[in-house]
Write a structure and sequence with these properties.
Elements lengths: L4 H19 L25 E2 L6 E2 L27 E4 L7 E4 L27 H106 L7 E2 H5 L14 H7 L5 E2 L1 H12 L6 H5 L8 H7 L1 H8 L50 H4 L6 H39 L16 E4 L3 E6 L3 E6 L6 E9 L9 E5 L11 E8 L4 E9 L2 E8 L18
Parallel strand pairs: 12-14
Antiparallel strand pairs: 1-2, 3-4, 5-6, 7-8, 8-9, 9-10, 10-11, 11-12, 13-14
Helix pairs in contact: 1-2, 2-5, 2-10
Bound molecules: alpha-D-mannopyranose.
């Protein structure tokens, strides 16, 4: 059972007073009806009565004469004559109390000692003893909880002290480690950079050599293509390509009239009337290769218009071996290094890599010339020396990034420890145990979760995303009991309203738990939360100073 924090301070006093009241047989001190013992001296039968606010003095026999004389109602403590008067019930056996004098003789029993209904005919039974007993029981239970809770709180304080010391030590150690890691990162960076220089140089040499091979191969291929074209154009097989042979290729028409005139053909042949294979390769081929359509391709049957899958099934060989000899993996880095080896080996004629081959027939004139073998396209593996340098650099890179990672981890740990150490965990650190914990309560609709010093969230019970009801803000209890309320703010915005926020009201309890959740006004939440950390020391019967009261 939880005990409201503010009530706790008064608990010993209340219990003491109650015990006093119960344990003492009430002695009736003579005084006018409705006057408390402490006000008794204002009402002396032998003297005129002065209203308690000093506004008027009246003969004593006008006190309780059922006529209101004093503005403050003090002349009618035992009747309902004054609208603003108060009636005092002694309530022997329980607790004395004041009731508004309008309730005197109104037919309803207000005072447990029945004294407010002396003239109304209402039949009241003295319930003070029973009420006193019940209250005593309740107060005793509360006191027990508070006592147990307070014991737990002492443990929490001890633990918090120890854990704080541990954390401070850990922080100091981490800060030392951080320095070491920083130095390590610096030196590993230098090692890495030193290893990367020769690595890059060796890789560049390798790449340059490969580029040259590639360029030479490309040239070879160009020449072969030119020679093949030459053969194709040389219809009379006289070892020369002449104007009329060029003129048969209308796709080479340059003025758009659909015909290759003699003059056009001559221009294409570089001003000559005929060229041999060498001149064709060197002077002519470059000028016509973009437009030129191979006769072999033009004569080949149009591929059947069949669905892609079927086509793939029925022509796998044709497609892969005859039309796409270049179906290799250009991304392969040739082994080693793990770094890009962007071999610039994609031929001008090559189409985009296209695994499904759907467009292969459409572009057949460009892929007519079989491309070289896949292996030829790949940059060869690095030589041993280069690979050794790459391995050394790889190792240095790994060590550097591992060290960097460790440094980051140390920095993160420092950050979170520093953050934790600056949180206000109460006068003696008694709330520290709540840090990094979360507590839930499920209602009809939602699961509410508070993670003290962090956040409060709400999640629909039957699925849906979490809504922030606020992030840890500050302690927000009244000045006398600052640590009794936690404020969480800046939660998810409320539609046409404020950002969600939550007050968590703490009370003393043996358990740490959410006791209730509510939303007193839209998007403003209230949680009741019990914790031993809020329990105050309670004097037990022997220890209390009730004898003096
Ligand atoms: C959601 C919940 C409720 C809140 C409304 C406001 O349904 O966060 O608690 O009242 O939004 O629109």
């Amino acid at each position: 059972m939880a005990v409201a924090a503010s009530a706790l301070a008064a608990l010993a006093l209340a219990l003491g007073l109650l015990l006093l009241a119960l344990g003492t047989s009430a002695v009736e001190v003579k005084r006018p009806r409705g006057v408390s013992l402490s006000n008794r001296h204002f009402y002396e039968e032998t003297k005129p009565f002065t209203c308690l606010d000093g506004s008027k003095t009246i003969p004593f026999d006008e006190v309780n004469d059922d006529y209101c004389d004093c503005k403050d109602g003090s002349d009618e403590p035992g009747t309902s004559a004054c609208p603003n008067g108060s009636f005092h019930c002694t309530n022997a056996g329980h607790r004395p109390r004041y009731i508004p004098s309008s309730r005197v003789n109104d037919g309803i029993c207000d005072c447990c000692d029945t004294t407010d209904e002396y003239n109304s005919g209402a039949v009241c039974e003295n319930a003070c003893k029973e009420q006193g007993r019940k209250e005593k029981e309740t107060l005793q239970k509360m006191a027990e909880v508070a006592k147990e809770g307070f014991k737990l709180k002492q443990q929490l304080i001890e633990e918090a002290k120890k854990s704080r010391e541990d954390k401070q030590l850990k922080l100091a150690e981490l800060q030392k480690n951080k320095g070491t890691w920083e130095e390590r990162v610096e030196s590993l960076k230098a090692v890495k950079e030193a290893a990367e220089k020769p690595e890059q140089a060796a890789k560049q040499i390798h790449k340059k050599a490969w580029d040259e091979v590639q360029a030479a191969r490309k040239l070879e291929r160009e020449k072969a293509k030119a020679a093949e074209t030459f053969k194709e154009l040389d219809d009379n097989e006289d070892g020369l390509v002449s104007l009329n042979e060029i003129q048969t290729h209308t796709e080479l028409d340059s003025d758009g009239d659909g015909v290759v005139s003699e003059q056009e053909a001559k221009t294409l042949l570089g001003g000559a009337n005929q060229v041999d294979v060498a001149s064709f390769q060197e002077e002519v081929w470059a000028g016509i290769q973009d437009k030129y359509k191979s006769e072999a391709v033009m004569e080949s049957p149009t591929p059947p218009d069949i669905p892609v899958e079927e086509e793939a099934d029925s022509h796998p060989k044709l497609r892969h071996e005859e039309w796409r000899k270049d179906d290799d993996d250009h991304d392969d880095d040739g082994g080693g290094g793990g770094e890009e080896q962007d071999d610039d080996n994609v031929d001008d004629e090559e189409e985009e890599e296209d695994d499904d081959g759907e467009d292969d027939y459409k572009g057949q004139h460009t892929s007519y010339f079989p491309k070289q073998d896949a292996d030829e396209e790949k940059m060869p593996a690095y030589d041993e020396g280069t690979q050794a340098l790459i391995d050394v650099a790889d190792k240095a890179r790994n060590e550097f990034s591992e060290a960097e990672k460790s440094l980051k981890e140390v920095e993160n740990s420092i950050g979170s420890l520093e953050k934790e150490l600056t949180v206000d965990f109460g006068p003696d650190g008694e709330f520290a145990y709540l840090f990094n914990q979360c507590y839930e309560m499920t209602t009809n609709e939602y699961v509410y979760k508070v993670c003290p010093f962090n956040k409060v969230v709400q999640k629909p019970k039957h699925g849906g995303s979490e809504t922030s009801l606020g992030l840890w803000g500050s302690w927000a209890g009244p000045e006398s009991n600052k640590f009794s309320v936690m404020k969480y703010e800046h939660g998810t915005g409320c539609w046409q309203g404020p950002n969600r926020s939550t007050l968590v009201k703490l009370s003393c309890g043996k358990e740490t738990a959410v006791l209730s959740t509510s939303e007193p006004s839209r998007c403003e939440y209230l949680m009741e939360f019990s914790t031993p950390a809020l329990c105050q020391e309670v004097m037990d019967e022997e220890g209390s100073d009730h004898d003096e009261l």
